[in-house]
Amino acid sequence: MRECFEVRDTDAGGRIGELTVPRADATVETPALLPVINPNLDTISPRRLADEFGAEILITNSYIIHGDDTLRERALEEGLHDLLDFPGAIMTDSGSFQLSEYGEIDVTTEEILDFQHEIGSDIATPVDIPTPPDVSRDRAESDLETTQERLEIAEATDTGEMLVSAPVQGSTYPALRERAGSHAEGTALDVFPVGAVVPLMNDYRYDDMIDVVAAAKRGLGADAPVHLFGAGHPMMFALAVAMGCDLFDSAAYALYARDDRYLTVRGTRALDDLDYLPCSCAVCTEHSPAELRALPDAERETELAAHNLHVTFAEIRRIKQAIRAGNLMELVEQRARAHPTMLDGYRTLLDHADQLERSDPVSKSAFFYTSHESARRPEVVRHHQRLERLSVPDSLLLTEGDAPRGDEFDDSWRVEPPFGPFPRALSRSYPLTAEVPDRTDRAALEAAADGVGRLVETNPETAVTLAHRGWPAGVLERVPDGVTLVNLASD
Ligand SMILES: [Zn+2]
Predict the structure, then answer these.
(1) Can you identify the CATH homologous superfamily of domain 5-355?
(2) Residues around ligand 1, an ion, CB closer than 5 A
């Protein structure tokens, strides 16, 4: 167990956790948003972030502070918390981003870690190498070696109570990300940013983003707090949380506001294109779009940034509630409909259903089948695994609907899309209580047929009869040959 992180609730790969930040004497509930504060530009003051938005933690860049004489002196004299006037926990970045943008920086990992410690950072970051997507494997590997050396330097540096992050790199190579994850897990470091995913998100590559996170998580293990570094758009939070991300940082709220862009959970809108404001935060209830457009530049930027933050924090709360209620996957399905690339992200998430299944609770309140992707959810995967462990009689009828009269078979089980067969005694247990549309889709029938196949393969001695309501021939092809078929719909 990592002492600084405790998982309280889970749903799919998502979790509500507690990150203990000893130096700030604070506990941060995750999933959490860290607004990015540029120490030179105060769009929304840190004090306001805490008081009005409930921010428990923020992130700022120690490299920018280090490189500015006035800021550096003030930070060393007053400490970061007084400098920014923020009562919560403060994480600091190290200049890795500047390194990736400009090719070099003028501090070493030891120097910048010491500096972060001296100015009172609560969570520090070493100088890792953010390897972009799609580089050669050789480059990704050699960059990763450097990052791992930096993590070892960080481990050996005396940082007192300050937590230190261990970025996980490896570009778009899942095997490298997994290796990087297990190396980071093996250090004594505390928080695990999955790095260099910003270019993926800028290009709407949510599918690749999910593969990268899934690989890092396999290396890291279940109790590691994971930070999706540079991810600040609320549209993709539910998806990333479902894959197991705990911390997000948002510069987007301020950067987008500067360009007159308005964040929503369904994507970004240009203020110029809005006739209505689809939000009930204070900014949106007190202004019309025309009134916002008419404000002086600085004021408009602040108002838009405030709205962007409101919508971002609201989504984090909505996600936490969904985890608590056990319907995070339903929320992910809704968000996946916002953009085709988000749907790619969701479908990729379901490629990792086995991995999600390990943390998915055995019982929740309800399973709503709301898209054909639902047929690939972790609950269906788990039911199919469970079919291998159920004991079956010599002759078994699997039938949709009610049990038949007569004693032609040793037993009769229900078969329901998308799960497939199960003993009637389990009818009232999760997830077999799922709410499924009457107009079943092909994916649900195929998943049910695969369930029949799973049962038959593990019990080759059993004589199985499947009574279905008009399943199409293409679906029935998935049922093993030895099964006797009865079409109830043809009666
Ligand atoms: Zn608003």
Answers:
(1) Queuine tRNA-ribosyltransferase-like (3.20.20.105)
(2) 279, 281, 283-284, 307
